[in-house]
């Protein structure tokens, strides 16, 4: 009996108490130290393990060793975590004021509590002197609050629809430019037993991107953003129509079976096995269709991408994208070695821009001269689309605060699952946003 | 020796290290959790004292009650499944062929971590290439359900995985208890002409009733605070259809940055578990245990 009680208590202690008392469980991390006159240690935490993000990891390693070579006496102490673990660790470390000197953060809504809690230090001073101009406009703004920049973005992504050219050719289909054509494509594929679209909506941010595109094409680039920042409303007819269209697509069996129960990685399966014809995903997937040697070349060559089709009579144009910067670097406000950390961050961003393109096939947030580089065609096409983009709408769940984002993601699952009507979908968003104020 | 042990000071000295550990690791966090529940706090910035607001708001939070209902369902389901485990143990404890082998089979899930078990069952339940649906399609079912995506089936699908996960644990407990019964009692019954079913029902079961009670409490408390498999397999989805109290607590505290509210959920969970334990003790208390 006593044993049971204590096992329950241990459970609670682990889940909640851990963060509460903090220090006994978290001896790691913390501000870097200055030992002696010149020896400096900068703690750096990132989320690209050598196993799952080999190319990213290698670039980080080489940038660090280059920096250490150029700056004798500076040691960069690296801590690597996987994506989900990283987010949790950030929360735990922040609550005990033990953030690493330099780390990675996501933009907008994710970083707001950290900024309000005075965890990140302003980085405006390192943007001066030319570095600021090297960023693609709009990317640093996503990491800013009250005109102060707290993070420097490393990546910029847009989300095109990837499609299998072989499947399209087999059923004599053209790349759709209007939504009507798109629905015809879906119907033809469906009638021939091919999965039209694969989506892993157990992670509803994937389903959210489809909704965001429809919202953009019906209502134009501002409608969704305005609804989130409260100058507009989710009960805007265009947004309700977008929700309705999602349910129409579900009714047409446009999406892979059981989409609400499979994750994004699993959802990739049918696309990579040529069972599904289309897959809407960020450009971080590009290496899989261009340079990744683990994917058969034949398959890589059969993949193309197209822009989300326009809706007739809708306000959105075809060059408007869903996307935004990925992670960015921050420097901790409580760091003992703030100046050295900032110097490192500046060096990192400069080097990253050059290396990300050639070594990892990642699109950096800084401008790239592609002229003299030998890059895969699809990569260059994406860069061109990016240059021509009329608008990039930041992912809805990143724009929202953490609590509203969770509501949004739950509602997206309900919408896809047919549990709620488009009107209720809009109303519940309104309620969640209103409760925030 | 007796002199030492009757010295109050020495006694407290011996107890002290363990007491301190329990205090620091268990009781203080509990009190802190209750205290954080009184705060509006995102877990990062400053706390604001808001009194009992979180606790009161929870009482009218539909998603919280829905999660509690799911946890309760799991508790009932786990308790009922104990009968299944017991039956298997009764069979394994008799001298049937291959009992040794079967016992090992049932124990295998205990050797796997929850993450591995979750991955395994994710593969089984996969809507298109999953083992389960492949079999269903092979025997002529046209439209097998997408188990984890279907809000009506997701709970039962996960419950089955949990039952499988814990089978070995409970069977081991029952098996050990059954093996403890002196052979002479069963021998005597057999000579008196009792059938195996009679022996099981009239002799073995009453003799292990104490163990059975303990397992009921284990199952119920374990179910109320159940978390890992559900979190990995569905994250509480689709749209909250498999949310339980612990996952709701976690979501609030760590993904929605509502640490105060999450703490309040955690405190309620503690109360539910204590209440559950107390109820079962009341319901199953008998005047005297049967001894052998």
- Give the percentage of residues in beta strands of chain B: under 5%
The poorly predicted ranges of chain A are 1-32
Discrete helix count of chain A? 18
Termini gap of chain A: 46 Å
Largest sheet of chain A: 6 strands, mixed
- Give the number of DSSP strands of chain A: 15
Strand order of the largest sheet of chain B: 1-2
Class from secondary-structure proportions of chain A: alpha/beta
CATH homology-level superfamily of chain B: MetI-like
Using a beta-carbon cutoff below 8 angstroms, give the protein chain pair with the largest interface and the number of residues from each chain. A-B, 54 and 60 residues
Instruction: Identify the CATH class of chain B.
Output: Mainly Alpha
GO biological process, one term (chain B): transmembrane transport
Domain ABC transmembrane type-1 (chain B): 68-280
Keywords (chain B): Cell membrane, Membrane, Transmembrane, Transmembrane helix, Transport
Protein name (chain B): Sugar ABC transporter permease
What does this entry look like structurally?
In chain A, helix 2 (54-70) crosses helix 14 (338-360), helix 8 (205-219) crosses helix 10 and helix 10 packs across helix 18. Chain A contains 18 helices and 15 strands. Chain A is globular, with a radius of gyration of 23 Å. The longest helix of chain A has 23 residues, at 338-360. Chain A is of the alpha/beta class. Chain B has one domain: Orthogonal Bundle (MetI-like fold), CATH 1.10.3720. A two-stranded antiparallel ribbon of chain B has the order 1-2. In chain B, a hairpin with a 7-residue loop joins strand 1 and strand 2. In chain B, helix 5 packs across helix 8 (154-180). Chain B is flat. In chain B, 37% of the residues are buried. The model of chain B has no long low-confidence stretch (mean pLDDT 89). Chain B: Its main location: membrane. Chain B: This is Sugar ABC transporter permease.
